[in-house]
Amino acid sequence: MSSIIEMPEFVLETIIGFSDFKDVLTLRQICRDFRNFIDDLKDSELPDSNFKEIEIVSKKDENKIVFAFADFDGTIYRIEYSESENSRKFQETWKFFENSNIVDVAVRDLELVLRFQKSKLYRIYFDVNDFQLLPDSSIHDFPVKLSNVCKMVNRRIKTEQLYFRKCNQSQIMTLIQCTDPNALEKLCFYVDEDDVDDRMELEIDEIVKTEQWKKANEFKCDFHVLNLDVKDICHFTSISIKTHSISASDLEFLKKTFTNLTKFVYAFFELTIFKGNEEISNLWGPALITELSSNWYFRIKDLEDEVLHIEIRENFINFNVFEWRYVLTGARVQDYNEG
After folding, report:
1. For residue range 134-156, what is the model confidence (pLDDT) as tens digits?
2. 157 and 118: one domain?
3. How many Cβ atoms are within 10 Å of 41's Cβ, its own excluded?
4. Which end of the chain is more exposed for a tag (fewer CB within 10 A), N or C?
5. Which range of residues forms the domain containing residue 86?
6. Mean pLDDT score of the chain
7. Total tally of structural domains belonging to the chain
8. Is 127 helix (H, G, I), strand (E, B) or coil?
9. Single pTM value for the model
């Protein structure tokens, strides 16, 4: 009696075509012949894993790499790779690798998942900074090996949102280029609320040159941005940035830019210090002063019902668009090209 692997290839391809992602992964584990047959298939012949989110995390304290894959129905598949035990744990099942580098095992697993991922992800999240501090660990090389996954899959990752937690500039530059710029809508570099060190700094000179940066619509950064050139951020419709300071001439450039953009939503700058109040008043005229802030309002080109509100406080500056009815009583609304 012939085995299933001896069936004609088109029959096996049909079976795999009607199977879901998890079934095909199970088939790969049955025998080497199945694994080789599946691995030799074209990506177009594989089912879509159809994940919504992928999280890729390194944990220095536990000497682990963790992957989490989330379905659109909320189901989460978590895989842990332990360097100390050279093992992989998936849904309470352990596998030990005596003669394999656990980082290579993790990268190979991720490559396989990405081969099956045809639809666009909602979000991919990287938190891989910990092992930069452990040069003697094999997981120290994880970010670099991670960047090679796209070369193995021979395509970039399609995701709407790209998140980095506490990653350094080198890691961001390496991993951002793994994503498809035509799919990307939001870039986020962030720290958790419970992170003790919120003084992380990020130079963005090289990042702003990437196609991913230029084509994204939203940008959020909890690190202190260094070498900020406002010309590099004015294409975003939504912006939230920490930076040490910003000049009055930069604010004037942003005001002129945003009053000519019909899709602009908001720009929030958290500052260490701002000393340009007098210069801004010379540029924009007297502000409407409230208890906590100075406020200016400007018309937006081609929009009749909305205005640009600019609010300056001691440590932040906020540009946002809202309807006329929310303009403070007594405020003067200037023309979009005034001054």
Report:
1. 556 666 677 778 878 877 877 88
2. yes
3. 16
4. N
5. 48-212
6. 85
7. 3
8. strand
9. 0.87
Phi, then psi, of 157 in degrees rounded to 5: -75, 125
**d(Cα 42, Cα 39) in Å, to the nearest integer?**
8
Burial category of 155 from C-beta neighbours within 10 Å (exposed 0-12, middle 13-18, buried 19 and up):
middle
Q: What is the pLDDT of residues 234-263, one digit of tens each?
A: 999 999 999 988 999 999 999 999 999 889
Whether 2 shows a pLDDT value over 60: the answer reads: no
Query: CB–CB of 277/294 below 8 Å?
Result: yes
What's the one-letter identity of residue 9?
E
- Write the CB contacts of 88 (distance below 8 Å, at least 6 apart in sequence): 79, 80, 81, 82, 94, 95, 97, 102, 105, 106, 109
Cα separations in angstroms, 140 against 109, 135, 161: 18, 6, 25
Query: Same structural domain for residues 65 and 199?
Result: yes
For residues 253 and 116, membership in a common domain is answered with no
Residue that terminates a domain, selected from 184, 212, 240:
212
Of 185, 212, 239, the residue that ends a domain is 212
